[in-house]
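Long-time lurker, first post. I've been practising inverse folding by hand and with some scripts of my own, and I keep getting stuck on stretches where the structure tokens seem ambiguous. Below is the full token string for one chain I'm working on. Before anyone asks, I'm not after the true native sequence, just a reasonable design that respects the backbone. If someone could post their per-position residues I'd love to compare against what I wrote down in my notebook.
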């Protein structure tokens, strides 16, 4: 909605005056000439035409009303449709929300049902386990009770001697049976029982006892051994005493062993406990033996607790009967499911108490041991964390020691938990180390990575969500591609993983272990003057080159042995199209296409070669090629392996060569490595090793390569838990090397950028200010929605705001004044919006303009660089306000002069408001003139701009001549370009000054001319100037006005505000007066009806665009038609008349001049001389009839007329003499200037020229005599 520009007021006044003159002449003609019949007919025709005009006006009015009604009807229907559509949309949204809510509720119900089902299943499983435990306990209790009863009554049921005579007493079978007892198992129970029933072992009881005691049993075999012992006891009376004596001898012999067998001790202790329970031994004999052995085990194991498994096994299998233990699991199952477990009836409570006390003492010592190990483990972890934090890695021995200790601790913890459950005791408190985070510092918690609240998405591994999707969300080719296409490759990869990966991993670990000591020593001191690492030996380099040759030969053989040329053409076309895959979809499609149609070994090698030989200029392809490799990796792992090995070899080659060429290729290699590392195709360990190799020789190209690698994947490595510590150590080492070495400024900037990209400094989150909804809506309209196409819509919304609220109005004015919050390219839209808003709210425009001017002035007073952006925006906004007729040109020029004069010292001394090196005011001037300067091309505004540009050039050359600009620190070239672009746009033919002296001379000449004009104007105002002087001044003004009006268009005439000559002269009188005017803040207000008049007493800026709004009607069209017709007739009548120019200064006839010269000669006396010297002769021209009469008047010199005329003649004579002297002295001045230029060129040696820019051609003086009139633009003398 651009603001409409009005026509010139002068043109309106001319048209109005011509219209009134024509009416007067027509009235006089009507009074002079009598009416005739013909004239009466004309008058009747006119009245009829008027009636027809009235009818046509009525018809037109009806048509307008009809169209208006139709338009309203159409708008009403459109609103109804929009309302209906909105209701349907609302209904659809409600249905969609209802459906989503139902789905959400359904999902919640399903989740609840699933959870309940899982709980029921878990409860059912727990119940089944409890029932099974209950059943096993009763079965074990019943079997033990029955067997105990049989053994206790064995003496009564033993067979007689006659029974043994029927059994087999052969030596062979008996000895074979005794030997079997040494290796008995649970599976031999039936066979051994059958053999025992048929053999007479009365003579082999001793051998059988020895075999049973010395048998290497398992826990599962104890039941079979107890069964056989019961059979022996029930048949042979002397078996139990012999077995008891054998056990005692066996335990006595074990005391002398230094390292007893734990598994044998566990089975033996359970064996004798089971024998006691089943009644084979008496309670006194068996319990004393068990107690003695258990006490010995516990007594010898109070510190190390190596036999804790023996105690746990004893408590688990025999603790319920021997010690009366009820495990916590059994107790909870009995309470939860109301189950009754068998009571401990075999041994009474008094005999069980010593065992309970002994086991609880052992548990107490075990808990003490657990706490001690827990503290020691925390100390080891703390030390390892410190080493990791300072060095970046652990030594192999320390890592192995930590793993072994952690394994032992976990085993001890599990045993303690088992024994606590069996004894129904509580576990001890194991406090966690609270200093973990404090000692670790501000980095990432390595032991609890991804802890919520530490690192969210904005500070995570990836910069944003798009980057995370690009590097993590890959296409699963196995879901789209048939398995047959990569089946062979999958088998090969699996076999390779089984056979080779272990060896490679072991070799790599061995290599790392071999260099661990060196790395630890190196990082421990963080020595800056490290010697370069020995990268690779010559044999390795030769082997790499040989491998490359073999690879190339193999590729050629594969190509030659290809099954056909058709597939080769397809692969070549695919490789040629790879550089065009510049987005995620295209590269994913290419991966799928390659896997579907070209998956052969030779094609994979060809693809690797194509990826490796990517052009060094196409760095944009590296992320997409890496994504291609990562996408193909699940189906073709050899592509990633071959490419990584080739990149690794190329990197080592460049680092080893240490040349200072091919930097683009080096950067391409390290950037490719970084991109593959982010896809986890290139291992983080190898990437950090590459960085460490570069840091070892941190100079020249290695600095650029290291910075490129960090800028590519440094953030990923630093924020990944497994590589964070080592990356941080390498970063610190890089920064220390930067401080210690004297690097170039470019390298310093690169290093700092890379470091702070990986590890940015902590920043406090800004708390967003909460505003009322209406203020948020206003900010949304101005700062987000406003654009070139939405200005009308935003204006309608602005008009609907509650303008009666002063707070809202003041906030909107503040938002418009704070124009720097708007996008720079949308500033003109705010000016457009304000121009439309002023028609309804006039005071808003006044306050906004006042606020903008105040902000510009405040920026010059404060002069802080942080406000530069807002100052530029304010200057552009002021120019746009002029473009939309919100301010006058006087305000623009006053602001421009303030830019080059406010706070500037007249003597050139430094000023805090405008320091010598501060060039921002030049930028402000260029911004303001670029915005609205193209409209200053007519009339007084054109002359004002020309005057300002002269002062502006002096300001620029004054800045250039200061001592702060030297050869090493030259004047900024971008400022020169900005000035030249501005002048080329506004004044392409303007003569530019080449030095400060020339600029000052132009300013002096301009001020002298203005002083002369000001003197003439003062005389004219005082009415004491001569007629000739008045005539010349008026002629000059008329010529200027004619020139302005002749080429002025309607748009341009309304674009700027014309100002009179005294105003222009006063604005450019001299620099001191301008500075005083700027400090006094004198405003020039142009009235909207009289464009050439100023009101110097009014200090307010007139805002155009207010007043009543014009409403079109039919009468206006009729009036305009009649006015045009009248103007056309008037122009046709006046076209034939001769134009008479009113002459104020009449030339004296020649014959009268001769009389004046001859007249005074005869009477040349002393009196006449005194009269002539006291008077001045004037010629008075009179007309009598058709004759002109001349009369000579002697006017005294004391009169104003004569004095002014005499002063004017004297001034003209002095000017002519000055011009004459300048013309005669020009040759001498030219020689002097040439001599000065020569001396200056000899004093200053020419600096090395910039051949990239065209040199400005040097000014060549024209040959021959100079034309003084052309140089000084005097126009010559009258002839």
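-- Answer (accepted) --
I ran through it position by position. Result:
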């Amino acid at each position: 909605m651009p603001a409409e520009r009005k026509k010139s007021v002068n043109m309106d006044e001319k048209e109005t005056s011509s219209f009134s003159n024509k009416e007067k002449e027509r009235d006089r003609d009507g009074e002079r000439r009598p009416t005739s019949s013909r004239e009466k007919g004309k008058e009747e025709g006119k009245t009829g035409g008027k009636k027809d005009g009235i009818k046509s006006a009525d018809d037109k009015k009806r048509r307008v009303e009809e169209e208006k009604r139709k338009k309203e009807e159409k708008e009403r229907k459109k609103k109804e449709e929009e309302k209906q559509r909105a209701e349907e949309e609302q209904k659809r949204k409600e249905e969609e929300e209802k459906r989503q809510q139902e789905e959400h509720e359904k999902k919640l119900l399903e989740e609840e049902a699933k959870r309940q089902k899982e709980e029921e299943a878990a409860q059912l499983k727990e119940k089944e386990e409890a029932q099974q435990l209950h059943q096993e306990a009763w079965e074990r209790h019943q079997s033990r009770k029955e067997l105990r009863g049989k053994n206790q009554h064995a003496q009564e049921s033993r067979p007689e001697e006659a029974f043994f005579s029927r059994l087999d007493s052969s030596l062979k079978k008996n000895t074979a049976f005794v030997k079997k007892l040494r290796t008995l198992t649970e599976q031999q129970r039936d066979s051994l029982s059958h053999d025992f029933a048929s053999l007479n072992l009365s003579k082999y009881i001793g051998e059988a006892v020895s075999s049973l005691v010395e048998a290497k049993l398992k826990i599962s075999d104890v039941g079979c051994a107890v069964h056989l012992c019961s059979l022996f006891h029930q048949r042979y009376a002397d078996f139990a005493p012999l077995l008891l004596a054998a056990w005692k001898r066996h335990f006595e012999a074990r005391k002398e062993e230094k390292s007893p067998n734990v598994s044998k001790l566990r089975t033996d202790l359970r064996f004798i406990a089971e024998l006691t329970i089943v009644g084979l031994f008496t309670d006194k004999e068996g319990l004393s033996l068990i107690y003695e052995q258990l006490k010995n085990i516990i007594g010898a194991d109070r510190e190390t607790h190596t036999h804790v498994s023996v105690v746990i096994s004893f408590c688990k299998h025999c603790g319920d009967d021997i010690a009366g233990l009820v495990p916590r699991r059994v107790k909870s199952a009995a309470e939860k499911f109301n189950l009754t477990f068998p009571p401990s009836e075999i041994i009474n409570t008094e005999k069980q108490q010593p065992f309970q006390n002994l086991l609880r003492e052992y548990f107490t010592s075990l808990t003490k041991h657990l706490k001690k190990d827990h503290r020691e483990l925390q100390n080891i972890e703390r030390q390892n964390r410190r080493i990791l934090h300072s060095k970046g890695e652990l030594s192999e021995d320390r890592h192995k020691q930590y793993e072994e200790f952690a394994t032992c601790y976990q085993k001890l913890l599990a045993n303690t938990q088992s024994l606590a459950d069996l004894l129904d005791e509580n576990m001890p408190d194991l406090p966690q180390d609270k200093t973990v985070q404090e000692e670790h510092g501000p980095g990432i918690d390595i032991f609890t990575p991804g802890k919520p609240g530490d690192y969210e998405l904005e500070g995570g591994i990836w910069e944003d969500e798009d980057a995370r999707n690009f590097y993590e969300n890959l296409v699963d080719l196995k879901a789209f591609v048939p398995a047959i296409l990569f089946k062979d490759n999958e088998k090969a990869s699996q076999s390779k993983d089984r056979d080779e990966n272990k060896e490679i991993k072991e070799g790599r670990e061995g290599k790392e272990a071999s260099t661990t000591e060196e790395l630890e020593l190196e990082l421990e001191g963080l020595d800056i003057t490290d010697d370069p690492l020995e990268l690779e030996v010559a044999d390795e380099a030769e082997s790499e080159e040989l491998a490359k040759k073999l690879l190339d030969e193999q590729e050629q053989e594969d190509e030659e042995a290809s099954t056909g040329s058709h597939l080769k053409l397809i692969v070549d076309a695919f490789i040629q199209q790879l550089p065009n895959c510049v987005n995620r979809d295209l590269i994913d499609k290419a991966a799928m296409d390659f896997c579907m149609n070209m998956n052969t070994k030779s094609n994979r090698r060809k693809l690797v070669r194509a990826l490796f030989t990517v052009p060094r200029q196409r760095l944009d392809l590296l992320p997409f090629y890496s994504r291609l490799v990562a996408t193909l990796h699940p189906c073709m792992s050899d592509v990633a392996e071959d490419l990584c090995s080739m990149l690794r070899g190329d990197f080592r080659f460049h680092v080893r060569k240490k040349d200072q060429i091919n930097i683009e290729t080096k950067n391409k290699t390290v950037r490719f490595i970084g991109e593959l590392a982010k896809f986890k195709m290139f291992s983080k360990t190898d990437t950090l090793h590459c960085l460490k190799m570069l840091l070892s020789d941190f100079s020249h190209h290695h600095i650029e390569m290291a910075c490129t690698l960090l800028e590519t994947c440094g953030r990923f490595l630093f924020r990944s838990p497994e590589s964070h510590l080592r990356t941080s150590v390498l970063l610190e080492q890089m920064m220390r090397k930067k401080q210690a070495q004297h690097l170039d400024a470019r390298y310093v900037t690169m290093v700092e950028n890379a470091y702070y990209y990986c590890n940015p400094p902590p920043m406090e989150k800004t708390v967003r200010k909460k505003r009322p909804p209406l203020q948020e809506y206003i900010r949304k309209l101005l700062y987000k929605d406003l654009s070139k196409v939405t200005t009308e819509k935003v204006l309608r919304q602005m008009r609907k705001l509650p303008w009666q609220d002063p707070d809202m109005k003041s906030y909107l004015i503040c938002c418009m004044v704070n124009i720097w919050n708007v996008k720079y390219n949308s500033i003109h839209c705010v000016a457009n919006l304000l121009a439309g808003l002023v028609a309804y709210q006039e005071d808003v425009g006044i306050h906004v303009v006042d606020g903008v001017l105040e902000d510009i002035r405040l920026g010059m007073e404060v002069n802080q660089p942080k406000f530069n952006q807002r100052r530029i925006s304010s200057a552009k906004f002021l120019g746009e306000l002029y473009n939309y007729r919100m301010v006058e040109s006087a305000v623009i020029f006053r602001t421009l002069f303030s830019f080059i004069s406010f706070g500037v010292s007249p003597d050139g001394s430094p000023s805090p408001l405008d320091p010598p090196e501060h060039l921002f005011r030049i930028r402000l001037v260029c911004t303001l003139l670029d915005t609205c300067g193209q409209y200053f091309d007519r009339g007084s505004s054109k002359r004002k701009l020309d005057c300002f540009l002269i002062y502006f050039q002096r300001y620029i050359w004054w800045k250039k001549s200061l001592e702060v600009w030297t050869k090493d620190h030259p004047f900024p070239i971008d400022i020169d370009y900005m000035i030249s672009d501005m002048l080329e746009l506004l004044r392409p033919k303007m003569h530019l000054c080449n030095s400060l002296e020339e600029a000052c001379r132009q300013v002096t000449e301009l001020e002298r001319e203005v002083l002369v004009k000001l003197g003439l104007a003062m005389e004219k105002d005082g009415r004491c100037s001569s007629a000739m002087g008045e005539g010349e001044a008026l002629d000059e003004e008329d010529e200027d006005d004619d020139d302005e009006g002749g080429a002025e268009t309607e748009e341009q005439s309304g674009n700027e505000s014309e100002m009179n000559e005294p105003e222009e002269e006063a604005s450019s009188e001299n620099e001191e007066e301008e500075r005083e005017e700027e400090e006094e803040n004198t405003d020039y207000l142009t009235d909207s009806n009289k464009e050439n008049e100023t009101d110097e007493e009014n200090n307010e800026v007139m805002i155009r665009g207010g007043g009543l709004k014009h409403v079109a009607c039919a009468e206006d069209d009729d009036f305009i038609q009649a006015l045009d017709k009248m103007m056309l007739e008037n122009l046709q009548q006046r076209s034939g008349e001769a134009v008479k120019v009113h002459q104020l200064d009449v030339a004296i006839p020649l014959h009268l001049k001769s009389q004046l010269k001859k007249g005074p000669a005869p009477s040349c006396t002393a009196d006449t001389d005194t009269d002539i010297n006291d008077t001045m002769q004037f010629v008075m021209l009179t007309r009598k009839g058709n004759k002109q009469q001349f009369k000579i008047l002697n006017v005294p010199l004391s009169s104003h007329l004569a004095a002014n005329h005499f002063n004017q003649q004297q001034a003209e004579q002095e000017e002519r003499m000055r011009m004459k002297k300048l013309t005669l002295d020009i040759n001498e001045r030219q020689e002097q200037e040439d001599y000065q230029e020569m001396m200056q060129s000899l004093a200053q040696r020419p600096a090395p020229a910039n051949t990239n820019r065209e040199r400005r051609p040097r000014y060549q003086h024209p040959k021959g005599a100079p034309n003084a009139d052309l140089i000084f633009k005097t126009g010559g003398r009258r002839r």
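A couple of notes from the structure itself: The longest strand covers residues 1175-1184. DSSP finds 51 helices and four strands in the chain. Happy to go over any region you disagree with.
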